[in-house]
Amino acid sequence: xxxxxxxxxxxxxxxxxxxxxxxxxxxxxxxxxxxxxxxxxxxxxxxxxxxxxxxxxxxxxxxxxxxxxxxxxxxxxxxxxxxxxxxxxxxxxxxxxxxxxxxxxxxxxxxxxxxxxxxxxx
Amino acid sequence: xxxxxxxxxxxxxxxxxxxxxxxxxxxxxxxxxxxxxxxxxxxxxxxxxxxxxxxxxxxxxxxxxxxxxxxxxxxxxxxxxxxxxxxxxxxxxxxxxxxxxxxxxxxxxxxxxxxxxxxxxxxxxxxxxxxxxxxxxxxxxxxxxxxxxxxxxxxxxxxxxxxxxxxxxxxxxxxxxxxxxxxxxxxxxxxxxxxxxxxxxxxxxxxxxxxxxxxxxxxxxxxxxxxxxxxxxxxxxxxxxxxxxxxxxxxxxxxxxxxxxxxxxxxxxxxxxxxxxxxxxxxxxxxxx
Amino acid sequence: xxxxxxxxxxxxxxxxxxxxxxxxxxxxxxxxxxxxxxxxxxxxxxxxxxxxxxxxxxxxxxxxxxxxxxxxxxxxxxxxxxxxxxxxxxxxxxxxxxxxxxxxxxxxxxxxxxxxxxxxxxxxxxxxxxxxxxxxxxxxxxxxxxxxxxxxxxxxxxxxxxxxxxxxxxxxxxxxxxxxxxxxxxxxxxxxxxxxxxxxxxxxxxxxxxxxxxxxxxxxxxxxxxxxxxxxxxxxxxxxxxxxxxxxxxxxxxxxxxxxxxxxxxxxxxxxxxxxxxxxxxxxxxxxxxxxxxxxxxxxxxxxxxxxxxxxxxxxx
Lengths: 122, 289, 317
Fold this sequence. Notes:
Chain A is built from three helices and five strands; from the N terminus they run E-E-E-H-E-H-E-H. Chain A has helices at residues 50-60, 73-81, 95-103, and strands at residues 2-7, 25-30, 36-40, 65-68, 85-88. The radius of gyration of chain A is 13 Å and the shape is globular. Chain B contains eleven helices and eleven strands.
């Protein structure tokens, strides 16, 4: 299935980036075939609502799941409305590791916002 | 006559100068004391010097969209026109992100189903009332956590009553970007308060560029002078910026200002010194007109 | 990797002087911390004046867009002026309106856009019946990657009278953060802007610790409360430094009372010292220029406390 992970470099071999809204890159991966594509995170350039922008990107990709380090209230609300399942990296340090853990069902699924988030209007 | 007091660099003494100028002008036109607007809505300080009674207050809000899901067809037109990504169709819902909205009204106007209405989202207040010596005072205060100062400054400036012959003083925030521009726009003269240090000069250059962009004549007041600083004088001369007043660095002044006293209250002679500054400004403005 | 942001509320309290001292001490103290520096005051960027870095890269910053009206297509209906909420549409020049206060287009033009007032919302673009308006990207400033003797410095200049300063701050910080992660740095030191609005919110975003520099004046105290409310609103732990502490002891006492009530620690008091201005004129952090100055000694102690707090804010450095 199509999943998205936040990463520090634009590659499936990258380390994970713990932040969703401002994680440098969004790696879109087919979790079965491991075909991947990296995209710059639209939340990165934004003074405010980074999580919202990243969430809109994820929703527009029609991903079924997204894996990151935390999901603020805005990102959470947007992803939930879009029907995207949210998971936490947990002990994973690299994107590949996280995909493995995901496939093995070892990642924690998020049922409520995890981060505090901000409310700037920028 | 509208005079803005700005600086570029923070902490050079804008508010001290602006409030001192206000006090000095009371004697000039006692039947119509000046109007003072504290436009530093993020960190307002002028009230500490002018002691106003803020008898009137008005909320400042941004109008943000509210979607009637019953009418919404999820066509996505609103998301298409929004330049701030503040409204989006996600799943079967159209979500509004108030923290991204700039209140432009575009989505509301362009929704083909008229499914969007606007609701006010509070961001701060504007307040006014009489202050010391009969000075009329008004200010804006941005709510903590809100990022946009400009809409408050804009509403503040529209709120106050102008009158012919009235002198209006605008105490600007530090910096050179949009809140300063919004404050200073439309002024007849820009008084730039600087200090004779590399930081002060660096930021004065930027402030002068703002004056240039807006086509407003400017003059300089040097605060905390402590011996010669040729680079600053050379800069002012090269830009044809009149140096209208030099205020020495003095411990008594620093201590007095720390306690909320204007220069006029610390050293009485500043009253006539500032009236002279005003006379020069009016003279210079008239020359240009 | 931790991020510290230095804020103040009121301008001119000494943020940049302290930021420069932190950069020096992080580099040269007995227990050095590998740091990346970021000047988030993009309106009036002063940190480079005391760090004298070598500029390595310059990048353009596109802030937002501005509407532009094609005079050949404009039929003068005025709908744009009616719908614009930012007072950015100028009506046509009318002879006989001389001496009036209202801003208008130049003689011979129809409706035009004031690029300084334009917020970039494009409402006029979509609603112009003649399709006479389009959006144009604005070059709003530049940002730089430089190398100073204490580490890499990311800074920027927002062109005067521009908006989107929060966005430029984010670009500066994001690049600082990424370099710090890539080079295994322990801390990003962010010199923040004055105020509490969007540039400050952007500067503070992601910080593990805020060091708030205040001065014991009526204005300083008042703005300290507002900036503390801001850091609390965004859940950023804050520590307070009182600069020029000796000019108004009663004021310093008031600050102590405010901090005690809010449960905020005061981690240092820097006396007023001419060496600070001297160091600035000399283009050096005061702790490097005049280590014996009372201000320098106070800053050394403050840095040591900050370093301890950084170690304590969850995880190790």
